[in-house]
Amino acid sequence: MVSSMHQLLLLFVVAMCCTRASAKEVAAFPRQVATPVEWKEAGAAPDSAHLSLLVALKHRDVEVLKRELEAVSSPTSSLYGKHWTAAEVNERFAPSLSTIKKVSAFFEKGGLAVTSPGNKAFVQVEGEAGTVARLLQADLRLFLHDNGHAAVVATGSYSLPDEIADEVDFVGNLHHLPNIRALTPRSATDEVDAMSSSDFIYVDANSNGPAFISGDVGDEQIGMSFALRCSNHSEAFPCLSSSSPTSITIKVENGQSGKVVSEEHLVSDICQACNSGNTASLPLSPSLHCDGSAGMSAKIPGFGPNSPLCGLTVSGVANFVPLKVSAVVTFASGETSDATFFSDVSGNVQPFYASPWVTPQSIKDLYGVPQGERGDSSSSNSMAVDEFLEEYYSPADLQNFFDMLGVRESAEGVIETGPNVPSQPGGEASLDIQVIMGIAPGVTTEFLYAPGRGPFEDASSPPITQEPFLRWIVNVSSQVSPSLVHSVSYSDYESTLGVEYVKRVDEEFMKLGLRGVSVLVASGDDGVVGYSDRYNSEHTCDKFVAGFPNSSPYVTNVGGTQLLRSKVELDGVGSARPYFNFFESVPTEHVCSSRTSGLITAGGGFSDVFERPSYQNTAVEEYFRLTNSSAVYDSPPTSKFNSTGRAYPDIAAIANNYLIVLAGKLRPIFGTSASTPTAAALFALVNAHLIERGFPPLGFANPLLYSLYTSTPSVYNDVVFGDIKCAVGRVRPNMCCDDGFSATPGWDPASGLGSFHFERFKVAAVRAAASASAVRAGSNTVADPVLEQGLLLFSLVGVALLVLFALGMLAVFKRYAREE
Q1: Half-sphere exposure (CA, 13 Å, Cβ side) for 141?
Q2: Cα–Cα distance between 696 and 769 in angstroms, integer?
Q3: Do you find a cis peptide bond into 733, omega within 30 degrees of 0?
Q4: Which of 131, 207, 446, 626 has its Cα between 20 and 30 A from that of 268?
Q5: Taking a C-beta distance cutoff of 8 angstroms, is the pair 326, 207 a contact?
Q6: 424: Cβ–Cβ under 8 A, 6 or more apart, which residues?
Q7: 729 phi and psi, to 5 degrees?
């Protein structure tokens, strides 16, 4: 009986061990991210689809990495500015060589090509989707984007063998669908081109007046597009002779005083001329143009497919003044239409705000950059614009931009890392490189392109698009000497990327900061609403969207502003109460908003993944104290955001009415895609002064920026007007939330710390570097927090050993005394 019990027990133990071993043979990596609404599943992935994967290996000692970065980035540390080399970072934090070999061997034996980039915390794997699916036990599916892009991801989990699973954070590009949108800069014509329904315009079915479609603003001018209809609005074009529109009167009034600013009476047989497309024969103001093609007007309810679409530019209006625009059409019968106002889709009149074009010189004037300031005092100074997903630039456009806007610079010296197709310039890339070089001429500039598409064997199918951001950060971190400042106008959402992904990418930002690299990221163009709900009329604004890499504690996030006239009135308790007074005040920076002709609304908010970093505690807590105690400034309900998360943006800059050259023509552009290279250029100019004096570059600058908020607040132009409640484009239903973050004195989630006063920022940065250098020069030892902790522990252990030794000796002495 006892023997039988022993046998049963032995069998039970063996069974448990075998079961445990079997369960640990592979480890599953589940998909825990949301699928963006723009992507739709389209069946199984073709086996021949070519995939390029990045296997993220676990770093060693991430907590030490955080402490070391804090030591070199905090202006109060004696190690401030003592940046590490790429070799030092790899040696200290990369996985062991045996780990790299073990992981590489698994994929090579599985039939995939393996390479090791300069960043030793990654292994790059290439191969066909069928091979990847079998090796990783993954169900790979084909997804199609609304604009035709194709991607392959695993809809469920993928698996790795037990012996390497613990060494891997994730296999990149298997779960994340790429953000095709990036942060494409906007213009008014973009809004017209994107129109797909009546959600964008107000149409009164009982009126026979024109329908305004879009609006644009410039320096002392406003532009508008409108569609015409017959006097009998149900009648399709061409009109009967008596109902044809023969003239149109455009009236521009001051939105507050009611004074008529401009009134243009344009006479012609508009109907006939527009439908024939014969604009040259129109005896009209040169500012009026008509498009005889059908197309756009067919999308407007109540307008025929041949209804003409016309555009008008009115010049000579005052900048920053709210302008109300209306139109009245006169028909051949002598009848006049109802007056139509430029309105939102609900019929609420929307004002225009003309403002000056933004050029490199106007940026320098606004932010106090001295005349003739250049960044070429040191050949080691450098900056980069980082581009994704077929965004290229044209050197010819860049040179034309310099020549047209009076910038003493040449397009010939740009360093191109990765492919560039000059014949296909994009608005994003053109904006980035023209702005950053226009403001900081003389700085060595890199155009760094991270491919997001690979070849596809089946010629009848589109090429596979993969998330480019991870590849970008691997490319940058693999460089021995990366550019010192990077401008990134690319953003996604924390919810579509997943916690593991964003935290691991955050570690890569830490390593770049430890090496002295500044990474500046755009805050987005859709306020608290988010891009996915840009055209979603059912959006409820219940939960604000957190963007990434916006929310990373280890990048500098850049919001957007615009110039408007405003005045500050003090209420009974001394709080600043903003209101508009357009005749008694000078233009000041407001948060850029689509409600005030900004066309975009700057992004901002709080992370749902990252805790608030200590460097911004003081600033953010002051914001909450103000909004919790003031009747003037309030914060949205905390149910809509994570009030303890990393708060952004950190700083802001002008984001609307930039002029760039695209395909040989000057074009206005709007977006935090513009404010980010602007701030990056100012960083590069400050670096020039630091390097010239023998000091290290700014590197990860956030601890410095927030310390200056306390010690030297005059470094910033505080932005106290505006909010980020809306999305991009023309005001329409559900594009604005009732709640949202507003600008306040001090830091706020709409404008950060504010914009820079360049000279004061430069002086403060040089002073901080000089102070740290002086501390090091006056000390024989370097204060290393990690080393100090080790020495303290060693000292405590030593003391404990001495105590034990003394107690032991005392015991021996007492025993000897008793024996005596």
Answers
A1: 17
A2: 7
A3: no
A4: 207
A5: no
A6: 390, 392
A7: 95, -165
Beta carbons of 475 and 409 less than 8 angstroms apart: no
Which of 334, 449, 460 has the alpha carbon at shortest distance from 391?
Answer: 449
Q: Which residues contact 213 (CB under 8 A, 6 or more apart)?
A: 192, 195, 200, 201, 225, 226, 227, 296, 300, 309
DSSP state of 458: -
Return all residues near 443 (Cβ < 8 A) that are at least 6 apart: 375, 376, 381, 382, 383, 437, 681, 684, 685, 688
Q: What is the pLDDT of residue 498?
A: 85
How many of the other CB atoms lie within 10 Å of CB of 440?
A: 30
Find out whether the peptide bond into 441 is cis, omega within 30 degrees of 0: no
For the purposes of burial, counting CB atoms within 10 Å of the CB of 625, is it exposed (0-12), middle (13-18) or buried (19 or more)?
A: exposed
Dist. CA 183–CA 387, nearest whole Å: 11
Of residues 756 and 345, the one with the higher pLDDT is: 756
Ramachandran class of 422: left when φ > 0, alpha when ψ lies in -120 to 50, beta otherwise: alpha
Q: Which residues contact 94 (CB under 8 A, 6 or more apart)?
A: 57, 59, 60, 119, 120, 121
Q: Which two tokens stand for residue 619?
A: 């600033």
Burial label, 245 (beta-carbon count in 10 A; 0-12, 13-18, 19+): buried
At 5-29, the pLDDT tens digits run 455 444 444 444 443 334 447 788 8
Q: Is 62 exposed, middle or buried (0-12, 13-18, 19+ CB in 10 A)?
A: middle
String of DSSP letters for 540-562: --SSPPPEETTT-TTSEEEEEEE
Strands 382-388 and 485-488, sheet pairing? parallel
Respond yes or no on whether the N-terminal peptide bond of residue 482 is cis (omega within 30° of 0): no
Contact 612, 646 (CB under 8 A): yes
In eight-state DSSP terms, residue 279 is G
pTM listed for this prediction: 0.82
Q: DSSP letters along 308-337, please?
A: -EEEEEEESPPTT-EEEEEEEEEETTS-BP
Structure tokens at 456: 């596809």
* CA distance between the termini of the chain: 63
pLDDT in tens, 360-387: 999 999 999 998 899 987 789 999 999 9
Active-site annotation, residues: 428, 432, 673
Q: Are 685 and 370 in contact (CB under 8 A)?
A: no
pLDDT at 242: 76
DSSP 623: H
22 phi, psi to nearest 5 deg: -65, -40
Sequence length of the chain is 820
Residue 641 near residue 544 (C-beta atoms within 8 A): yes
Scanning the structure block, which residue is given the tokens 């051949």? 332
State the sign of the Cα–Cα–Cα–Cα dihedral 666, 670, 673, 674: positive
CB 579 within 8 A of CB 567: yes
CB atoms closer than 10 angstroms to residue 773: 18
* HEC per residue, 174-203: CCCCCCCCCCCCECHHHHHHCCCCHHHCCC
Q: Give the span between the Cα atoms of 564 and 351, in whole angstroms.
A: 13
How far apart CA 400 and CA 429 sit, in angstroms, is: 15
| Residue found under tokens 């329908």 | 211
Q: Could you read off the pLDDT of 461-495 as tens digits, one per residue?
A: 456 666 788 889 999 999 999 999 999 998 888 88
- Helix/strand/coil percentages in the chain, nearest 5: 35, 25, 40
79: tokens are 């190690």
Q: How far apart are CA 513 and CA 549, in angstroms?
A: 14
- Residue 94: both structure tokens together: 């990369």
Enumerate the H helices of 632-757 as residue ranges. Answer: 672-692, 702-711
Q: Which residue has the tokens 């589940």?
A: 30
